[in-house]
Amino acid sequence: MEEKKSGKTGLAIALAAIAVLAAAVVWLFLSVRNKGREIDEMTQLFEIEKEEMENEYSGFAMQYDELQVHLSNDSLRHQLEREKLRTQQLLEELRQTKATNAAEITRLKKELATVRAVMRSYVAQIDSLDQINKQLAQENTRVRRQYQEQTKVVEKLTVEKEKAEEKVALASQLDAAAITVVPRNKRGKEEHKVKNVTQFVVNFTIVKNITVQTGEKTVYLRLTKPDGEPLVKDASNTFRYENVNLEYSAKKYIEYTGEQQEVTMYWDVEEYLSAGLYTAYLFVDGVMIGEQSVTLN
Fold first, then answer.
1. SS (H, E, C) the chain
2. CA of 54: how far to CAs of 39, 42, 82, 120, 177, in Å?
3. Are strands 215-224 and 276-284 parallel, antiparallel or unpaired?
4. Which of 169, 162, 296 is nearest to 224 (CA)?
5. Structural domains in the chain?
6. What pTM value is reported for the model?
7. Buried b (16+ CB within 10 A) or exposed e, 260-278
8. How many CB atoms lie within 10 A of CB 119?
9. pLDDT per residue over 222-270, tens digit each?
10. pLDDT for 194 beyond 50
11. Dihedral sign, CA of 125, 130, 131, 132?
C-alpha cells in the first residue's frame, strides 16, 4: 500500500516537472519571438531613419552647389566646396552602412547635426554678404546718379561758357552794313545789261565796334558768278577761311579805329560775263562780315 502511494507521488512530481519545463519552453519561445519582433521593429526604424538621413545629406550637398552659383567671393566658394565634398563623403559612408549597425548610424547622425549647423552658419554669412552687396549697389547707384547730375551741370556750364565765348567772339568781330553791289558801264553809269558791264563797285560801311582791336585790317572781296565760281585775276590770290584757302577777287587795307568807316572796293571786268546772279562776300580777320547780290540781264 505504501509502495503504491510512493509511486503515485513520484509520478505527480515528474508530471509537475514536465509541466514546469513545458511552461519554461513556451515562455522562452514567446520571449524569443517577441525579441525578434522588437529587433525587426528597431531595424525598420533604423532603415527609415537611415533613408531620412540620406535625403538630408543629399539635400545639403545640392544646397552647397546652389550657394556657390552666384557667389563671387573666391575664399568662401572654396570653403563651400570643401564642406560639400565632406558632406558627400559622409553620405557615401551612410549608404554603405547597414541599418543594423546602430553605433555607426548614431555617429553619422551626430555628423549630420554638425553639417546642419555648418550649413546654417554659411547661409547666415552669405545673407550678410548679400545685404552688404545690396548696400554697396545702392551706394554705387547713388554715387553714379550724383556723378551723372554733376556731369549734366558741368556740360550745361560748358555750353553756357561756349555761348558766352561765342557772344564775346561775335561782339569782337567787325560787321559790314549797307552793302551795295553796283555794276557800271564804261561811262561810269549803273548798268544791268551784262554785255555792257565793265566794272563792279562794292560799297559798305564798317560798323562801329569798340570791342574790336584797332589797327590795320585787310578786307577781302570774293565776287562770285552765277555758277558760284569766283572772279579772280590770279589763282594764287587766296586767304584763310574756316581752315580752307579761298580765292578772292580783290583786297583792301584799312586802318580801323573802332569808329564807323565807309569802304569802297572795285572789280574791273576783263572776262566774259553771263547773265544771272552775282554775289559779293566780304571777309575780315577770317570772318565773313557780310554779303550782297545783284542780277545782270
1. CHHHHHHHHHHHHHHHHHHHHHHHHHHHHHHHHHHHHHHHHHHHHHHHHHHHHHHHHHHHHHHHHHHHHCCCCHHHHHHHHHHHHHHHHHHHHHHHCCCCCHHHHHHHHHHHHHHHHHHHHHHHHHHHHHHHHHHHHHHHHHHHHHHHHHHHHHHHHHHHHHHHHHHHHHHCCCCEEEEEEEEECCCCCECCCHHHCCEEEEEEEECCCCCCCCEEEEEEEEEECCCCCECCCCCCCEEEECCEEEECCEEEEEEECCCCEEEEEEEECCCCCCCEEEEEEEEECCEEEEEEEEEEC
2. 22, 18, 19, 18, 99
3. antiparallel
4. 296
5. 2-131 (no CATH), 176-296 (2.60.40.10)
6. 0.45
7. ebebebebeeeeebeeeeb
8. 18
9. 999 999 999 999 989 999 998 899 999 999 999 998 889 999 999 999 9
10. yes
11. positive
